[in-house]
Structures are given as C-alpha cells and as structure tokens.
C-alpha cells in the first residue's frame, strides 16, 4: 500500500523545515526567482558593517521597488526590522509602486511570492 499526502500537508511539512539561509533555503530560492524574472537586486552580504535591521531583499523592476524580509516558518522579526517595515509601509501607502513584504517558506510554496514578483496581487 502506498501512503499519500495531500499537497497542502506536504507544503506545510516542507515549509517547517526550510531555513532562511543556506542551500535550498528561502533566500536562495527567492534570489533565483528574482533573477529569473529580471529584477535588479541588492542583498547586504555583510550586515555587520551596516546598521542592524535592513531587510533581506531590495529589488527593482518595471518601475516597482520591492523590499522584503525573509523569515523561516517560526522566525521572528527583530525590533530593528520592524522599524524598517513600518517606515517602508508608510512610504508604500503613498506610493503604490513600492512593495513591502515579510515572506515565509509557505509564501514561496503556495505561489504568493512568484505572483508578486510577476506583478500580480497576492490574494
């Protein structure tokens, strides 16, 4: 007898084990999507040299500016990251071409991140 698992259950299991960094991690997978879809990106590879809290993704394409913080399924947003997110949300509320997100593995696995990067609203 073959055991089966529902797609949603599988996604949840994968999301729980996917880290933010490292091979196969969320950062690597989001970077691959960004590159494949033609986004120009910046990633702070040495955050120790800069003020704490800057978000993991800063990217632009077709007149849009994207900021995203990437977290594991259980990762917590730091106080410094929260300050960046709140200030950038204020900018985004006045400029619809500025996108601000906190993304977790489930957002990748359910297609939310790809929809946003392709220019479709995430529902």
Structure in words:
The chain has 123 residues and is of the alpha+beta class. The chain has one domain (7-117): 3-Layer(aba) Sandwich (Trna Endonuclease, Chain: A, domain 1), CATH 3.40.1350. The protein has five helices and four strands, in the order H-H-E-E-E-H-E-H-H. It has a four-stranded mixed β-sheet with strand order 1-2-3-4. A hairpin with a 2-residue loop joins strand 2 (57-61) and strand 3. The longest helix is centred in the last third of the chain and has 16 residues, at 79-94.
Primary descriptors:
Trna Endonuclease, Chain: A, domain 1, alpha+beta, 123 residues, 17% strand, four-stranded mixed beta sheet, 40% helix
Please write out the topology:
Blueprint: H1 7-17, H2 26-36, E1 40-42, E2 57-61, E3 64-70, H3 79-94, E4 98-103, H4 105-109, H5 112-117
Parallel strand pairs: 3-4
Antiparallel strand pairs: 1-2, 2-3
Residue share in β-strands: 15-25%
Domain count, please report it: 1
The helix/strand series, from N terminus to C terminus, equals HHEEEHEHH
CATH class: Alpha Beta
Report, as a whole number of angstroms, the end-to-end distance. Answer: 38 Å
Helix share of residues? Answer: 25-40%
| Global outline | globular
**In which order are the strands of the major sheet placed?**
1-2-3-4
CATH architecture: 3-Layer(aba) Sandwich
Give the biggest sheet: 4 strands, mixed
- Say what the CATH topology is: Trna Endonuclease, Chain: A, domain 1
Number of helices: 5
Q: What's the mean pLDDT score?
A: 86
